[in-house]
Every structure is written in structure tokens, then in C-alpha cells.
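Support reply, case 0932

Customer input (verbatim):
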Amino acid sequence: MNEPVKITRNVEIRMKKIKNKNAFDLKLHHVYEALFSVYDRDGLPHHAPIGVRVLGIHDGEKYELESRIFPTAKMYAELSRQKECTIHFPGYHQLQYYFLAFHEELKDQIVNVVKIVSKANSIDAPVIPDIKNYVEARVISIRNESIRDELSLESQGSSRRGVFSLESTRIIVNDPESMPVSRHGGLILEFMVKASRLRYLNPGSEKFMETRDELKNMLDKLESLAPGDEKNTMAATILDRIDHEK
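Our regenerated output:
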């Protein structure tokens, strides 16, 4: 009979590091779809899906983060006042949490999405225990940028967006196999579907030109969501070859 293999403490640590390296992993400069949570002025939890970009990772223990929020959103006012929040990263099996953006329109259906709320450890903000991976964070600075977007239009001729710089105070990864939802990944899939259809359209047709222009815009968006990602280069090559073959 073979004797059981003894695993030393050092081996256990190395195995844990290897496992985590390929599990929950936030990439630099990528935009992830997260769920921000704060306490509002009445002391009630308020949750909103918001994109977050990782600007820096220090020693694997502290994140520099950035989010852009329209001033017309409730989260803009509450986060500006509270300056502390939890940033949850639902897995692909938890997409229902993004419907919280429509809590007014889905009052009856949305009531059971967030069933339990606890409190963060290092800051004054709510935690959704069912979402195992989250970051407790503080707002470092807020600046406004002028943009052309009706969503942020506060008055005639005035359009802006708040850029929130944050840093983590605590990083919790209780489910390392639950991958964060990447906007870039979703757009790559959409690009591939549209590009595969482009091959079968008649060159010079209105539909061909319309689809090609749409794919070019998607390439620009892909680069803005994940600058320098190799999949952006592959997508550009696909479009270029299809375009030239036609």
C-alpha cells in the first residue's frame, strides 16, 4: 500500500498561490462590470451596477481603481457624500444583480435579488454576502470631465461625468473560481458574431458597409476597455482581412 503524501506548509502556500493566480484575477486597465454599494442619507443600502477600471495593483494587496458616474445618478450623490463603498464582483452565474439598475421598473421581480446585507469590516458600507468577491474602498478624489452625452445632461449646454479615484482598504476573495464580468469579454463575443456574418454579405451593399462601420467602432471600444489586449489585435486582423478580401 502506498503511503499518503505529506504536504508541507511551504508546499501548501505555493499550491494556494498557483491556484489563485489562475482564478479571480483583475487585469490592469480592464473595465469590469461591478456592483457598488453604499449607505444612503437615510442609512439604507443602495446598490448600483457601475464599471470599474483597475489602474494599479500594489503587492497584490491594494488596488487603485477608477469609475465614471453620471451626476444624474443617485450613486454619484451618495458616493460623493459617503466617500466609502464596497465594490462587488458578481460571477457570470450571478448576472441578476445587474438588474438592480432597474429596481424602479422591476419592483416586484427585484425584491428578492438582495436578500441579506451585512456590514464591511474596514469601512462604513454594506456587503452582499452572496457575492463572495468584493473590495472595500475609499474615495481618494473626485473630478469632473466634460462629455457629450445626454445621460449626463443636467441643464442646457451642460454635460459632465464624475471620475472617482478609489483605493482598496480590504480585498476579499472567498470564491477564487468565480470570474469577474469583463465588458471587454462581452464585446469580443459580440464582435466575433458580427464579423462572422460580415463574410457572407455582398461587398459594397448597404448592409455590408453598415456592419463594417459598426465593427470599426467596436474595435475602438475594445481598445478603450482593455488597452493593448492581444485579442484587440486579433479582432483588427480579422476585420482587415475580410475587408480586403471583399
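We compared this against your earlier run and they match. Two observations from our side: The chain has two domains: 24-173, 183-245. The first helix runs from residue 9 to 21. Please reopen the case if you see a mismatch on your end.
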